[in-house]
Recover the amino acids of this structure.
């Protein structure tokens, strides 16, 4: 089973939920797809074993050929190419590695060059959890590529917990895709309701079974519950506003370590999801 | 001299558009005859790489100089590599900017004057 954990916005608490759920499940695989700021490994106390580069193939002109590359430059849907004074200029940060220019340019007029956009770390965390961490090269803008590489490490031998990027953005859909379950973590605040509605309606399209986790609940969270009932999405866990949990999180300690109460709450969550031990 | 001015309208009385990559129109002008031809900027609606697309379209027309307000790094790289001169800090009407150019009062840029996405953030 693959369980993706997303947050309606940054700071909602998705890493807290994802790491504590992974610890509760044990022996699973934690796929950190929050590639701009992956920090699940801290809560899981992971050591790093192996690093693999994530690269895209960008074109490079063989200038000596004097081939006409203007059609290829015009073709590039991302405007990553220009021809100036007969030479090709390649703007690597804009290239998505789609490969189109190689087909449009005269045969063999372009060389392929690797452009590193990120890395994937594999390591071991507590409780037999394999921790896979995606890291995006800042400014490369190729989050989706790195997320795909991280998800490529999922195999049928273990359950997987995916920590998504914050908010509901394009890379989040890549992270959630093909998951069986998606937990959407939301804060209990009146401002979060619109975001939650949009998040639920968007993530529904991924086909994953949705569930909501309410974090920092200060009261009965009626607005959230009504919305979830309307959308037919269960509220699977509710964490109160708690200084203890907040302090533990800030110190890199997972919520389940704070007190048996929260360890029990996460066990209940695991049962409701139906991710039994493997 | 054949030049291009970024403009908000289609004739010499239009205001200069301070953005290069996301300007509304390019006015291709012959500074001797003051003949003027407007072309909508193809880079205007681009998701990314607006400056590059805009610069390529200008370079393809074989102009000697660009007159604009601000220029980002990507467009600047294309224009520099093509040997096109870039005059920045133009404001007011296109006609006024041409006057300033003649008087040598525009700044000749040797590189970008703003960061990427300036045009997106200052619509
Ligand atoms: S690989 Fe695709 S995105 Fe990259 S330069 Fe070629 S056409 Fe453009």
């Amino acid at each position: 089973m693959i369980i993706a954990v997303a947050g309606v916005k940054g700071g909602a608490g998705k890493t807290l939920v994802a790491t504590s759920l992974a610890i509760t499940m044990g022996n699973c695989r934690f796929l950190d797809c929050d590639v701009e700021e992956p920090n699940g490994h801290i809560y899981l106390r992971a050591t790093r074993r192996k690093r693999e580069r994530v690269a895209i193939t960008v074109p490079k002109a063989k200038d000596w050929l004097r081939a006409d590359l203007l059609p290829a430059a015009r073709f590039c849907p991302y405007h990553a190419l220009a021809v100036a004074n007969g030479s090709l200029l390649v703007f690597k940060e804009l290239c998505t590695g789609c490969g189109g220019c190689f087909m449009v340019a005269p045969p063999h007029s372009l060389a392929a060059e690797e452009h590193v956009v990120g890395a994937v770390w594999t390591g071991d965390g507590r409780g037999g959890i394999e921790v896979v961490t995606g890291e995006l090269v800042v400014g490369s803008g190729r989050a989706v590529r790195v997320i795909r590489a991280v998800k490529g490490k999922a195999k049928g031998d273990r359950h997987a917990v995916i920590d998504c990027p914050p908010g509901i953005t394009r890379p989040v859909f890549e992270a959630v895709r093909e998951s069986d379950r998606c937990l959407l973590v939301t804060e209990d605040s009146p401002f979060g309701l619109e975001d939650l509605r949009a998040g639920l309606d968007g993530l529904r399209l991924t086909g994953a079974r949705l569930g909501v986790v309410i974090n920092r609940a200060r009261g009965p969270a009626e607005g959230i519950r009504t919305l979830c009932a309307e959308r037919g999405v269960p509220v699977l866990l509710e964490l109160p506003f708690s200084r203890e949990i907040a302090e533990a999180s800030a110190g890199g300690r997972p919520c389940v370590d704070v007190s048996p109460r929260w360890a029990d709450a996460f066990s209940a969550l695991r049962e409701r999801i139906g991710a039994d031990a493997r | 001299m054949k030049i291009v001015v970024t403009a908000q309208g289609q004739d010499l009385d239009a205001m200069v558009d301070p953005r290069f990559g996301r300007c509304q129109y390019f006015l291709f002008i012959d500074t001797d005859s003051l003949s003027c031809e407007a072309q909508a900027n193809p880079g205007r609606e681009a998701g990314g790489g607006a400056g590059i697309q805009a610069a390529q379209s200008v370079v393809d027309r074989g102009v000697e100089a660009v007159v604009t307000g601000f220029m980002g790094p990507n467009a600047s790289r294309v224009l520099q590599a093509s040997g096109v001169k870039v005059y920045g800090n133009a404001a007011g009407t296109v006609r006024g900017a041409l006057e300033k150019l003649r008087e040598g009062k525009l700044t000749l840029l040797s590189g970008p004057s703003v960061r990427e996405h300036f045009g997106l953030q200052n619509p």
